[in-house]
Amino acid sequence: MGVRSWMSGLPASPAAWGLLCLPFALTAQPAAPIGDVDVAIIGGGSSGTYTAIRLQDLGKKVVLVEASDRLGSHAHTWTDPRTDTAIDFGVQIFEPDKPIIDKYLARLNISLGPSDLEVGGPHTYLDFRTGKPVDYVPPSAEETVAAIERWYALLEKYAYLDDGYFLPDPVPEELLLPFGEFAKNNGLEALVPVVALFAEGIGNILEVPAIYPLHFLDKSLLQASSAGKLRTTAARNVSLIYKNAGEILGTSVRLNTRVSSLSRKKDGSISLQLSTAGSRPETLRAKRVVAAFPQLLPNFDGWDLDGGERAVFGELAGTSIHCAIVRYSDIPDNYTLQNVAPDRPYNIADLPSVYNYGPSRVPGLVKAYFGSASTTDVPVSVSSKAFVDTLARLGLPKDRSAPKPIVEVNKSHFPYFLRVGVEQIRSGFYKKMYDLQGHRNTFYTGAALSRQNSASIWKYTEDEVIPKIVQGL
Q1: Which of 373, 380, 336 is nearest to 353 (CA)?
Q2: How far apart are CA 291 and CA 443, in angstroms?
Q3: Distance CA 370, CA 384 (A)
Q4: What pLDDT was estimated at residue 226?
Q5: In angstroms, how far is CA 233 from the centroid of its own chain?
Q6: DSSP strand E in 298-377: where?
Q7: Each residue of 336-357: pLDDT tens digit?
Q8: What is the dihedral of CA 360, 369, 318, 414, to 10 degrees?
Q9: CA–CA distances in Å: residue 414 to residues 20, 92, 255, 321, 337
Q10: How far apart are CA 257 and CA 65, in angstroms?
């Protein structure tokens, strides 16, 4: 497959990568108290669910606490009521040749198959600000292949980024350059549009420190994409991962539940008070606690953080991406409408804006993605309006009597990508964060410590977190 055709077959959003509307919801909370546990896991997304399954399989008593009404976090599936077809519009795609994926999903009785290329097909490039077509020609195959080889050489040079942010001291200064400058210095200009596509959701790509895009887009993901070897669930329903995990965990799951207080005692035990909608508060004790949610300081409300913990997590900031399904028949099936800005470097549109509209499994339904570089979330109502208004600027629908676009479902992935500034990286932020692992019997996992895809999150949890939790337990 040529590079240009490979680029046109990429998913319309990075939220698709097993990197991402009811993945799994319990019909009722268990009536009986769960009692004391070995490990309390707070956050029922990708990392938290994996941690709970693995620890339970190791014979540990766990409780998995999730604030929303479902497990799955960025994994979103919506079933079209007209066709009864499930459509994944968050996490959708997994890499091949990743034993951690195959082993974990086999445990959950989930089969994988080839991606159905619903995200492929022709790309139409338009300036979403004006609605006008743009005569945009992607870099040539030869230019892109050469830039990819240089990218691989940089990944090898900075191999310590493969499993996380295990950085040397001092941190190489070129990793702290704005990515646009880094790309120019290293002859990566032809690859910038591809990196921007993969890294949607991390903010203004040309301005973020180069360490983040370089870490985000690893060699295996590029190779799998170019070779057409990406996978998805055989049932085309990523929600089943969390449905099956929830069934295995059973009454160890607490949905619609928040930690109202968490106190870590001098004897090493941890006291938690849980508040569940419609139920009385529940107090339990744990020997270990795992923060498997985005580690922004406000998310630790009620925790007895010490000064060191507060200083570290107070540095993190997040960006967002909104993922939606829009009912709209004026975009040809299998087409992608891509936002480009001819007056901007590399034709990359400014944020906030709609990134693109891409195909789904159902004719007349398109997936749509909206990004913002703000460190606070954008209301879903704002992105829903942007999805409809942008189509109007594009002159769609052409027939004024045709049905107007309808946003069937729209989910915010905030905070999607957690990062810190150049000075924090230079001053050893990531070492300070990793050094908190196990401090006061508290452990941390998730994308902020690994990478924004499922395989990396699960591998980091398996290699760096699970052994430390079970030691002496």
Answers
A1: 373
A2: 6
A3: 9
A4: 83
A5: 17
A6: 317-327, 336-339, 353-359, 365-372
A7: 999 999 999 999 999 999 999 9
A8: -60
A9: 12, 18, 19, 7, 24
A10: 6
DSSP 8-state class, residue 138: P
Tokens of 266: 């001098």
- pTM value is 0.93
C-alpha closest to that of 198 among 188, 184, 181, 213:
213
CA distance 407 to 282: 38
Give the chain's length.
473
Residue 5 has pLDDT above 60, yes or no: no
DSSP 154-187: HHHHTGGGSSS----SSPPGGGGSBHHHHHHHTT
Half-sphere exposure of 379 toward its Cβ, with a 13 Å CA cutoff? 3
CB 80 within 8 A of CB 202: no
346 and 196 in contact (C-beta within 8 Å)? yes
* Burial letters 219-255, b for 16+ CB under 10 A, else e: ebbbebbbeeebbbbeebbbbbbbbbbbebbeebbbb
- Read off the tokens for 89: 């519009």
Task: Sort 62 into a burial class: Cβ within 10 Å, 0-12 / 13-18 / 19+.
Answer: buried
Query: Residue 326's closest CA among 301, 362, 284?
Result: 362
Could you read off the pLDDT of 201-249 as tens digits, one per residue?
999 999 999 999 999 999 998 898 888 889 999 999 999 999 999 999 9
> What's the whole-number mean pLDDT along residues 253-276?
96
Tokens linked to 415: 């905070």
First and final C-alpha spacing in the chain: 51
Task: Give the C-alpha separation, 253 to 66, whole Å.
Answer: 8
Q: How confident is the model at residue 279 (pLDDT cuts 50, 70, 90)?
A: confident
pLDDT in tens, 39-90: 999 999 999 999 999 999 999 999 999 999 999 999 999 999 999 999 999 9
- 309-330 b/e (C-beta count within 10 Å ≥ 16 → b): beebbebbbbbbbbbbbbbbeb
Q: Which tokens belong to 350?
A: 């400014």
Query: Which segments of 293-376 does DSSP mark as H helices, in order?
Result: 307-313
